Amino acid sequence: AGDAPVGNPAGKAASVMREIPAVGVVLLMSAINAVSYGTLLFGMPASPSGSAAVVPSGISVWLLSQVGAQVGILLFSDIQSGICCPMVEMIPIFHGMFLTVASRMPDTLPEEVQATCVASCFVCTTSIGLILLLGARFGLAKYLRAVPLIVLKGALFGVALFLISSSLAVSASDSRIPNSTAWHHCLPAAMLGLLLFVLDEAIHSPAAIALSLFAIGLAPTVLDSLGICTLSDLQQNGWVFHADAGSSQADSGAWYTELVNAYASSYDFIHWHVIMELVPTMMGIAASASLLMLLGLMVGICWVRRLMDLKAVELLTEREFSLDKELRSIGVGNLLSVVVGGGWPCYILCSLNVTCHRLGGRTRFVGLFLTFGAVLCLFLVSKFLHRLPPILPGSLFMWLGLVFVKETIVDICSKHTHKSDVFIVAVMAFMVKFYGFNDALLVGTLLAMSFFTVRYSGSQVGIRTSGDARFYRAICTRGFDEHSALEELGHLIEVVHVSGFLMFASTPAFTDALRELMDAAEGPMWILLNCQDLQGLDYSAALEMATLGRKAKESQKRLVITELTACVQKVLQQAHVELKALPAGSSVPSGFFYEPHYQRALQRCEDGVLARIGLRLLSKSQALLGSEEAFMREVLKRYFGDFLPEDISQDFALEKVLGLFEKTIVKPGTVLWRAGEECMKCACVVEGTLHAYAHRSRANRDRTPALGEAELGKGDRLVCIAGPGDFIGFLAMVNHFPYEHTAIAPSEEDESESTTLLVLEKSRYQELLTSDPPLGQALVRGFLRQISYEWRELSRLTAS
Predict the structure, then answer these.
(1) Which of 592, 611, 630 is the last residue of a domain?
(2) Per-residue b/e over 111-122, b at no fewer than 16 CB within 10 Å?
(3) pTM over 0.90
(4) How many separate domains does the chain show?
(5) What is the pLDDT of residues 693-727, one digit of tens each?
(6) Which end of the chain is more exposed for a tag (fewer CB within 10 A), N or C?
(7) Considering 420, 453, 486, which residue would you say is the last residue of a domain?
(8) Dist. CA 729–CA 731, nearest whole Å
């Protein structure tokens, strides 16, 4: 929270002073939310005005709910500056429940209907708190992640539609406003909401939004002070809330007197049998609320990706929070909301928490001050409500509705991984408009599960196999010391082979397995995801990939993904998942990287481990050793020097073997040999790269088109990358087999314009075996050792 020592009083004071801007802005936004959204809480359609005696003040309910929930967060949450507030998303859900209550009580008094609605609100909030506590107790948060993210997006789109319609309704809610002039009040609210949205998109400053809303709320008072018009004139024309709205508490003595009287008078009117009949509906609402609360915790990922350039937001994701523990704190907060007399569901709202961190909030001082500030607002709101314009909540609803529209339907249309995503959101919007919020959630979930079931039925999902570099090994030439080092340090590399489809149901198990690797103190430093058999992934899985990348960076790990198909790459690009190229060299920072080819990716992971102990030869070894000849001497020595007989001079043997090779320079795209041809030579790469491809179909293997990589088919797989110091083609030459792979000098390499090789003709190799058997035997043993490592890798890949 600060640079000063914790025990220093001056340091503590400085830390508190740095948090004052965050406290001020968050308190201002909370007060504006209370005044704006509080007017909507019990806005039950067709409710007579004469029944107000049994309906508590929505603003008081909002503030009391926030006080109770914030106490729960302060006591039980790991988020030091966590802010809890009532759920805006529950307003349309509860309104739907109120309509259901009214439909079951057609012949009763209005007071009875409204009292039963208020009681159902309390019962539902209590159920939400208990469900969250039970879910946290049994560790059910991880199962909630299996809910399709597209359904949660559709739910928020329904909330957006409700907020936009509420913006127009609340701006012209005064009964004295004629219908013919209602648009005079709706239009300014819509325009101001649109301006707030443009301002937010332009500068992303919550402080500017809060000050703009404050200016809108202050406008009537300023006009009255300047003598332009009086508050009574504005009230008469419906431009500010009527004085009666703010005087009800004054008439009854205080806000708490009014609240107690409302609850006491409503108790005798409650129809408990109606509430018991609605228990299944309330359980469904509680489950929906739990999902939305979890979304409030998880959707921070989307916000953080959007605000990644801010240092404060990086601090927001600096540590991993336990979803179960946070759900417990929210559950306690909801129960306390009921105990203190609020009774409205609450959750940790991501936008307020991001705002707090951006403005410097780091400790529980923010939540503590917000609690006292909410209590203070309870005593002051009645004195200021009649000075506020209905345009204030109207513009706020319009702005937030447009934000939700952008974050839902616009986001889905621009980043959707399948057309069914757009269809699901459109159907949910239709259901919200004409049937109800709960119906939309149910239909959206069923549609998403049906689409995914049909699309991915019969497919295996998730991790096919996993092992470290002691089991999986790159197919490239290495010396005995390097192989020995990898046997000892192979646990620092974890190779994970992924297959099937990653979707909302299989992604949690996949991410949990990778998080275990990242959280392990003695775990791997490199994690390689081979996605060759990954056939597809959905929007939820794409966002989880981005989350894993950030987790790898925080954990000081290197997560490398490879062998992505075109459809998987397209999905990740649409979701704006950044795929950085895996850099060459021994110094690779922590983070998320992409390498197209599995063999090259694994080779670079191994090089990174070997570089720690200074074993791996660098790609530009010629520059260090002075010449091609010196470089080749070092390669041959590393390759078979330990197999030379003791009575043979090493320098003499290396000189003789080196004389058998012939230098050749090939241009990019040149094919050295094709699979199936008779083996006539092998080659050692001096500078540049050679790729070896295996053909899966006989048609690709037998055809002889023009030279170059254009002859490769979609099913052909890169099985070996030969870099400086690597031999290729010796397996066929030693065993007198045809070439198994097609060797090509790749055209996409940017390391050099051409590839330099030292070629060993088969005839000269056989001549060495005849003229100098000990030396020839040493060379063969070097070949066989490399073959044994490659054969082990191939057999393990086949078995996995």
Answers:
(1) 611
(2) bbbbbbbbbbbb
(3) no
(4) 3
(5) 887 655 444 444 333 444 555 557 777 778 787 88
(6) C
(7) 453
(8) 6
